Amino acid sequence: MSELLIKNATVYDPINGINGDKMDIAVKDGKIVDSIGGGAQTIDAQGRLVYPGGVDAHTHIAGSKVNVGRIMRPEDSRSGIKPMTKITRPYTGYTVPNVYAMGYRYAEMGYTTAFEAAIPILKARHTHEELEEIPIIDKGGLTLFGSNWMVMDAIRENDLERLAAYVAWGLLASRGWGIKIVNPGGGEAWGFGKNVSGLDDPVPNFEVTPRQIIRSLAEANERMNLPHSIHLHCNNLGHPGNYETTLDSFDICKDIKPKRDRQALHVTHVMFNSFGGNNWGDVQSKADVIADYLNSHDHLTIDMGQMIFGSATTMTADGPVQYANARTFKARWANGDVELEDVSGVTPLYYSPQVYFYGMMWGIGQELALLTKDPWKVLLTTDHPNGGPFVNYPEVITLLMSKKKREEAISKIVPKAFEHCMIHTIDRELDWYDIAIKTRAGHAKVLGLIEQGKGHLGVGADADIAIYDIKPDETDATTEYDRVKAAFRKAAYTIKGGQIVVKDGEITATPMGRTYWVKTTVNNGGYDRMMEDLKMKFRQYYSVNMGNYMVQDEYVQHPVVVETEYAEV
Amino acid sequence: MLIKDVLCPFCGCLCDDLAVEVDNNKVVDVQHACKIGSSKIMGHDRIKAPMMRDDKKGEFREVSYDEAINEAAKILANSKRPLLYGWASGVCEMMKKGVLLNEEVGGIIDNTASVCHGPSALGVHEKGMPTGTLGQFANRADVVVFWGCNPVQAHPRHMSRYSVFAKGFFATKARRGRKVIAIDVRKTDTAELADEYIQVNPGMDYIVMSALRAIIAEHADVVPDNVGGVPKEKLVEIAETLKNAKFGVIYFGMGLTQSRGKYKNIDNAVSLTTELNAFTKYSIIPMRGHYNVTGFGNVCAWETGFINAVDMSRGYPYYNPGETCSNDLLMREEIDAAFIIAGDAGAHFPAQSIARMGKVPVVQIDPFHNPTTEMANIVIPTKVSGVELEGTAYRMDGVSLRMRKLVDVDFPSDEEVLDKIIAKVCEIKGASA
Ligand code: SF4
């Protein structure tokens, strides 16, 4: 029976509409409660900033592509080193930290939940092996379905029941939380070194289009009543002129009615998909057009995919993009095709502020966040480690809160960058409440985790709490950005499930977090039709037996299983 | 009782389609496996009990597990530069304990890859590795290259399950639809089955690759008439075949990693593969030996940031092959204790390293006698993973699967022994701190 009282907190809890109120927070047995007895352990926050624990809805923290990044980049593991202590295992790495540094660094920044954004089903066991080794934070992952043969076959035959049955089975097999779609159809095309170029470009050999894949999976998603919407990485990522494909992709889900209180579509790292122009000479930001769309539509959310200057390890199921990157920049290239399911690629890059299109990309991420009026619609991410490592979130927060900080940053970037974007013309500055949305509340809402007690501090919520060493009343974030950044880098306290895991920025305890996944029951003829097809595919085309494919319970030691049921809409 | 979908604990193919008949807690029949796989599962002579001796030339005496474990822990705790080597023929669960033990003793953890595919990892550091899962190759590949490897002997079911004779979604004609090229210094049984055999003079793989790259880049003019024993016309022909594939895959083995050029061969082979992707789709993949040697590389990477040869003497992981691999350390006579588990240093290390091991205390953890036993002071027998113990293993392509337990035995698992050693090491170190 552990009890904890946080006194004199300045609380921002957007899900419950709390905006800088002075209040106490009571914790009992890992949950937020109304009040507790007198004997509880007490932390006097002394008016400092208190947020719900941070939630990251899109990050690459575990699995084969992350590990390939580590293996390919020993030079990265040689940075960020912190020796072991009595409490902590050693930290290594910057863009591809080891599993321990992943958990510790998120916790040090006041984050308590992070979702891996790409699980290939065949390699899901590996993903969970790593997730299980990441200390402290709660986790979950999104399962890749966008170039899967079972998915495309069901869509071609217009059999939504069978499609949903397979997705349910795939989520069970991978212990996944939601549907991830990366460069729909392009993964299969990459199987023979090709790509798809637009939403109506048929996938070779499968006679379906990216548009059909997105639409059908979005419909299946609602029929399955999944907590999260589909999670889309658009076609044509990284290509000049791709913003049109992005807008078209948004439109596909315009009339889809979500069954839950959330968006019908989440589009990820939109920075990489907001390019105008025809080539790298005249490439330009179209963040304003994307933001206009978001300002006039309510069916979708996005995340920024903010770019951070310096070293990055790009990793994505968008195989063709990675090959193009490796060729263009003469960089190392790892590719990882997964039979019948998807592909992936890993390439280290260096984002130099002297390269104008990197400067433009840096601008676009912030433009998306600042030009979109509703803070709930754009989440703060760096698409770790694609745009840059997650440890840079405090930098991004200060950029969004302070025009002066942006001006200072702009002065270090090649001026030509600003002929291609508009960040230097934007005056908006976000406040503490906005940041709470963009770094926790919004993420929990988008993922469908509010019911799970994430992203807020209401009674019954998980006692995942961050206390930052800064007093909102006495701090002008628009000018004192160095202080703000320092505070967000090292939380004064991170409390995970009622336990103090970080004090003064140092790890004090390393409990194991939980893993969230969804189990959907599909009770119709679609299930039998799917099983027949699936058994055939295992017999003929998979290199593993069906009996060995599914992730066993042993690999998810602290599960939280959310159950849903399929129903026609 | 017939147990289905059994995984084979022998080679990197990690075949998962075996059926094993168990009667009265004894394996009586193994179906679908190749000869080497089934003989491992059928079982043979085991080390019966823990053993110790003070003098390496003396006789072993049987001791209790507690005594052997405590003595092993003492050796590790009192050592200044212990080497923890092996970590191949076991499950990932024990490898995680190995990394933890290495942290506790501030030693060097090194895996058998050190003497086989270690150079492949260096190639990956230099150039990456465009690869995929074996099923991808089975479904698509119409050009298959075996370079410096001989699956007929080392991976007996590789050709039938994944590479040459396997039917696939696009490779409907299986063997008849595939062009198979073997490149090796001698005509192996694999080369006998190939459509083309390219004999390379020993140590000349690197320049043959470079010549192919030059031809593919349309610089055939700079290639001399004969490269590494291969006539230029032949190379031009091979380059054409490679380029005209719909999907090509290069499997490579120790003929590349352990011959002249070592990691530079892999660096070059990866460059060749990457460049071929400008024309069509290409993949490259190392033929890994032990069924879970790939697992160690993965576990070590996610826990330490490095794939192998991790020195923890500074309190954080330090990796520098050439300095921190087993044989670097043994040959410099730095090692003052050796802990050998699930790998056989005695059979595979050079004489100079063995000589050093002869002078320091050696602890061996293994179900079976092998040449390392001859050098050991303490021997602790454990369960055979994948037969007597379940757990995780990574196939050569990085697909991980759960190995099954087929029979019950009284031996402890590697993991249990490691747990006890770690606890004892902490106790000793705690007391002296
Ligand atoms: S090929 Fe390898 S894994 Fe398959 S049965 Fe033979 S030894 Fe075992």
Written description of the protein model:
The complex is a heterodimer of chains A (569) and B (433). Chain A contains 17 helices and 24 strands. With 569 residues, chain A is of the alpha/beta class. In chain A, strands 6, 7, 8, 9, 10, 11, 14, 18, 23 and 24 form a 10-stranded parallel sheet that branches. In chain A, strands 1, 2, 3, 4, 5, 19, 20, 21 and 22 form a 9-stranded mixed sheet that branches. Chain A has a 3-stranded antiparallel sheet with strand order 15-17-16, with helices on both faces. In chain A, strand 1 and strand 2 (18-28) form a beta hairpin. The radius of gyration of chain A is 22 Å and the shape is globular. The mean pLDDT of chain A is 97. With 433 residues, chain B is an alpha/beta fold. Chain B has helices at residues 35-42, 65-78, 92-105, 118-127, 134-140, 151-154, 158-163, 189-193, 205-216, 232-243, 254-257, 263-276, 293-304, 326-331, 345-348, 351-359, 414-432, and strands spanning 2-6, 18-23, 26-31, 51-52, 61-62, 82-86, 108-111, 128-132, 143-147, 179-184, 196-199, 226-227, 230-231, 247-252, 281-286, 310-311, 318-319, 337-341, 362-365, 378-380, 391-394, 400-403. In chain B, a hairpin with a 5-residue loop joins strand 21 and strand 22 (400-403). The longest helix of chain B is centred in the last third of the chain and has 19 residues, at 414-432. Chain B is globular. Chains A and B meet through helix 1, helix 2, helix 4, helix 11 and strand 16 of A and helix 3, helix 4, strand 8, helix 5 and strand 15 of B.
